Amino acid sequence: MLPYLNLQDAEAGLGRELSFAEKIWFNYSANKHDFVLHSHNIIFLCFFYSLVPLPYMLVELSRSKKIMKYKVQPKVQRSFWDMFKCYKDVMKSFLIVVGPLQILSYPTINLIGIRTGLPLPSLWELLLQLGVYFLVEDYVGYWVHRWLHTKWGYENIHHVHHEYRAPIGFSAPYAHWSEILILGFPAFLGPALIPGHIITYWLWFILRQMEAIDTHSGYEFPWTKYIPFYAGAKFHDYHHYVGRQSHSNFSSVFTYGDYLYGTDKGYRCYMVLANKGD
Questions:
Q1: How large is the average pLDDT for residues 114-128?
Q2: Alpha-carbon gap, residue 73 to 107, rounded angstroms
Q3: pTM value?
């Protein structure tokens, strides 16, 4: 909750006129408790999970030859009911697992210093923090993912996520309830190390979810090649295609972890053979 009575009080406190964005933020958040603002995360999670995979679903159902050429595993086709079942299972996990976790994590958010007040972060501050969050999550997530592919980790936890050998957008967060909790750690680590504004915090989880949906979509569109070191759908699809025996492509966003530790060799050999076949 902002410590100002009105806009004039806020401008006096900051010693300047509020920007347009700050005025909107003040009007929206002034009378809301920080716990309410923190709880927006589960709303955004459900909203963007419901919205972002829809274009991929429509593409899958259209069977358009112009777009199907971008499908990584063209022989595998999903029905509406296949995708809807996955959606229902994930939403159930969100409500039963992620929702309570969001509520219980509020004291930690306060402790590490995620702020809700004014001023809002500058564009450069926001972009730099998001960049750090992606790098931290990608590196730590790489090792967590490798652990999930140990015999115990896979058999007891990670096998659920690999039920989709040909992943779809809706299957990005489809996993054992404990995996959802485990993978929350690397995602939360960046904001814990470099806390920022809650808007940056919201945007981080929204973007990370959108990226996960893209890499699980099963479609590798040309524009992804313009993102440096981006894993993309084809890179992660190989990991699912190999399945239980996979010792390749553990990175979630970028490819540098697999390159540095040599866990992309199987994928590179596969791509060489696939290109020769073409």
A1: 95
A2: 44
A3: 0.93
- Let me know: does 236 contact 213? Beta carbons within 8 Å: no
CA-wise closest residue to 148 among 175, 111, 122: 175
DSSP 8-state secondary structure symbol assigned to residue 197:
B
DSSP per-residue string spanning 50-78: HHTTHHHHHHHHHT-HHHHTTBSSTT---
Averaged pLDDT for residues 27-32: 90
Token duo for residue 116:
């809700």
Task: Give SS3 for 278.
Answer: coil
How would residue 9 be classed by pLDDT, with cut points 50, 70 and 90?
confident
CA dihedral 252, 253, 258, 261 (to 10 degrees): -90
Cα-Cα-Cα-Cα dihedral sign, residues 231, 235, 241, 244: negative
Amino acid (one-letter) located at 129: Q
Contacts of 220 (CB under 8 A, 6+ apart): 70, 72, 232, 233, 234, 237
